[in-house]
Amino acid sequence: MEVKTHKKRARITTMATVLAVVVAAAVSFTVWFAYHSAQLADASLKSANKVSGDMPKLPQITDFDSCKKAGGSKLLQTYPAQCVTQSGKTFTEALKYLTIKEWGVEIPLTSTVSDATYAVKAGAPDSVYLSLNSLSSTACRANDVSMGAIRRFTYADADPLSGKTLRSENPTAVKIGNYYFYYEQPQDGCGDTIGVVKDSNIKAAFSVAVSHIQATSTLQ
Predict the structure, then answer these.
(1) What are the two backbone dihedrals, phi and then psi, of residue 182, each rounded to the nearest 5 degrees?
(2) Which end of the chain is more exposed for a tag (fewer CB within 10 A), N or C?
(3) How far apart are CA 149 and CA 128, in angstroms?
(4) pTM of this prediction?
(5) What is the pLDDT of residues 162-174, one digit of tens each?
(6) Is the peptide bond before 108 cis (omega within 30 degrees of 0)?
(7) Which among 99, 100, 186, 184 is positioned nearest to 139, based on CA atoms?
(8) How do the domains of the chain map onto residue ranges?
């Protein structure tokens, strides 16, 4: 009887020992696995941060100009011009204005002609000659062979050569008060001085600007 009891106790002791070993092994494995997982996560995070740090930073798009320079942006053929970012955000070009105080009118300026200037010649009150401040020391300064002119006329004014009314010859002229206004290309271009492309772009910008002429005060 005592032998059987002894054997039974030995089996229980052995099972308990095995169970303890298994539990200890399980606990050790759990601790090791948790530690190993933490190490892998930390390594992955450091790697991700390194990759993120090595990647070039995307330019901040905060206005029309930065939108134009950003990759994937799209320029819309509107006036003023609009730029749409890759994410769909829209920026509108900010316009400056050239005020012609002698006439009480102003024209909106895009970036191409943002430093526009003008001149009025004695004896020619109905013509304003356009140019840029950056061209003031060249043959393209504001004079009768400049970057074009704004002409104005009244309802009854006629062309002295054809006898036709200036209204019929300039149907797109803009009426403000008692006057009609239109842009006239210069007789001689400035392509030889500033380059044909730049010359053409400036005249095109002035043509569009004059087509959007507006009143600023009572016309004189």
Answers:
(1) -150, 160
(2) N
(3) 5
(4) 0.65
(5) 999 999 999 999 9
(6) no
(7) 186
(8) 1-56, 58-94, 96-215
